[in-house]
Design goal:
The chain is mainly alpha-helical and 370 residues long. It is built from 13 helices and two strands, in the order H-H-H-H-H-H-H-H-H-H-H-E-E-H-H. It is globular and about 65 Å long. It starts with 10 loop residues before the first helix and ends in a 7-residue tail after the last helix.
Length: 370
């Protein structure tokens, strides 16, 4: 295995992580949830919008970061990687991320009926299980395990459902979560207890992390970066086409995190990564990359800070009429812009705000890791 050196570190990966965090804040912080441009809203059920790609993109960059973390510690497949201390570190990190997710849900959604699963919980579980896989088997077996996870999940969806296997109320994902977690501790944003980050649907999310890991392995070990871009574009186009073809039998659905959605989103990630490699690592457009690298330098911290910060607006009242600062700020923007544009500007202002926070931390060399 070729040693990782500074020359093999792709700034494109760091910049893409920053863009992903910026997009997560953008789509999660509208001025009004009633006024959102369609590309900045999730698909209601089947289908995929640009917003639906944000979370899988983050899982891909988790896999990428995992590769660099392992090799920075001198791990090598020829040395079997099965180090008890490494497994302990992985489990501890996964538990911390999962616990942060519980705190996130408790503060924002209430502790009495605490939602057990969520974005951070899925990240923690998918990271841990993907790490165990890449530490335990060789590269070819990683591909096999990934394929089995996608095909196995498809089989579970089809064979375990009570009625329409891809329906909101009849899929096996919601049935299992109701049994293991309980309806009082599940997401209810769709009108019933159904968690888009459920336990069973976390299985295919592991593959997102594995894909990010393997794409990074490919980039690092490929000395010709022009060739890397060509291969990424080819894989990306193939992933999108294959996902659309699979969609005939297995709908592309983020809420169920269907296997076709994994492949489809991976296609777009490969194309985005190819563009970033071309711009940043080949054309050396560092002025474009640097602000994004700054944004991604404290990704988990910024992701958690943003909603807590905005949630605090609900406790700040303006004037004697009890208007919250959140509604006040959106109201000011709505006086200048149409409702949907005001909502978007509200989100963009917060993207800028949290970039400034990231920049202060970056300049002071403060990097908050979990």
């Amino acid at each position: 295995m070729k040693a990782l050196t500074s020359s093999t570190r792709y700034l494109a990966l760091d910049a893409l992580r920053g863009l992903t965090i910026a997009m997560m804040i953008l789509v999660n912080t509208p001025g009004s949830w009633e006024f959102i441009y369609p590309p900045f809203a999730h698909a209601d059920w089947h289908g995929c919008t640009p917003t639906d790609l944000v979370f899988p993109f983050f899982l891909f960059v988790v896999g990428s970061a995992m590769y660099f973390a392992f090799y920075k510690n001198g791990l090598d497949q020829s040395e079997k990687w099965l180090l008890p201390s490494m497994f302990t570190i992985i489990v501890r990190r996964a538990l911390i991320i999962f616990a942060l997710g519980l705190v996130f849900n408790g503060v924002l959604g209430g502790w009495e009926n605490l939602r057990v699963m969520g974005v951070l919980q899925r990240i923690g579980l998918a990271y841990m299980l993907a790490a165990f896989i890449v530490l335990s088997v060789n590269q070819m077996t990683v591909y096999v395990v990934g394929a089995l996870l996608l095909l196995g999940y498809w089989t579970l969806l089809v064979s375990g459902a009570q009625g329409d296997p891809f329906g909101l109320t009849s899929n096996v994902v919601v049935a299992l979560d109701v049994i293991l977690i309980g309806p009082d501790h599940m997401y209810t944003g769709k009108g019933i207890p159904f968690d888009p980050e459920g336990l069973l649907s976390t299985l295919p999310a592991i593959v997102n992390v594995l894909i990010g890991f393997e794409l990074t392995r490919f980039l690092v070990l490929q000395p010709n970066r022009f060739y890397s871009v060509k291969i990424l574009l080819l894989i990306g186009a193939s992933g999108i086409l294959f996902g659309l073809l699979w969609n005939i039998w297995l709908p592309i659905n983020k809420s169920l995190w269907t296997s076709s959605f994994v492949i489809y989103s991976a296609g777009y990630f490969c194309i985005a990564l190819a563009v970033f490699v071309w711009l940043v690592d080949i054309k050396q457009q560092y002025s474009f990359a640097q602000p994004l690298i700054v944004y991604g330098s404290n990704s988990i911290f910024i992701y958690m800070l943003a909603p807590f910060w905005v949630h605090a607006y609900q406790y700040l009242q303006i004037g004697n009429k009890g208007i919250t600062f959140y509604n006040f700020l959106y109201g000011v923007l709505a006086q200048v812009f149409p409702p949907a544009m005001a909502s978007l500007v509200f989100a963009l202002l917060h993207v800028l705000l949290f970039w400034c926070v990231s920049w202060v931390l970056y300049r002071r060399k403060v990097f908050i890791r979990v």
